[in-house]
Request: fold
Amino acid sequence: MSRTPFIAGNWKMHGRAAEARALARSLRERIGGVSGVEVGVAPPFTAIEVVRAEIAGSAIRLGAQNLHEEPKGAFTGEISAPMLVEAGCHFVIIGHSERRQFFGETDAGVAKKLRAASAAGLVPIVCVGETLAEREAGRTDAVIEAQIRGGLADLAADGAPGLVIAYEPVWAIGTGRTATPEQAEDVHAKLRGWLGDLFGSQRASTTRIQYGGSVKAENANSLLSQPNIDGALVGGASLDPAAFEAIVLAAK
Ligand code: PGA
Reply:
């Protein structure tokens, strides 16, 4: 089963307008015409418009890092799925470990956001991952299975077309410490098995599962060559156009 790899850059809280414009422009020049791999960037909300303008007409897709589950209402400081669609977003990251860790997001909340993203036609990237303590306690599989079953609890077998899962071990995010290709592949293969339990083998075999956590130009090849690793969610290295380009080219 061939799955087009998907490399997404998560810019996190980086990029004021001028920086975001320069980064987007450089990416468009380097990889704006890339084929055989899907590429996206998720800037901060305030830079979405400048990035949209820079990458318009290129192969680079626009995404957001978070959304609120309601389409509108009295939710000060929040941004809804229809707003993201209107701003030009194609995908949205849901349940990133930093959202879980610093903003109290839960699997139940992920399920609500997934429903909202899907209703608006956004492609969701649902993030899962264990902490170092959980891995060292031998609980990795149980933690990831609970996250995937909880986050996808409300999803119909044909819901959220294009759904992407990102496996991001928390201990590998921003630490320079990457999961080995074998560690990552082990979890990815199990994730595909749980997707099969939930939605059947057809959906499991077509769903893309990205790896995230200190992906760099130097380790991209060995990770992306694993059979169940279908792309990457890239934080730090996505802010460096040459590094991000190298990761994208490694996925082809
Ligand atoms: P990192 O972040 O590549 O900087 O480790 C990945 C992520 O948090 O998505």
Notes: The two ends are 16 Å apart (CA to CA).
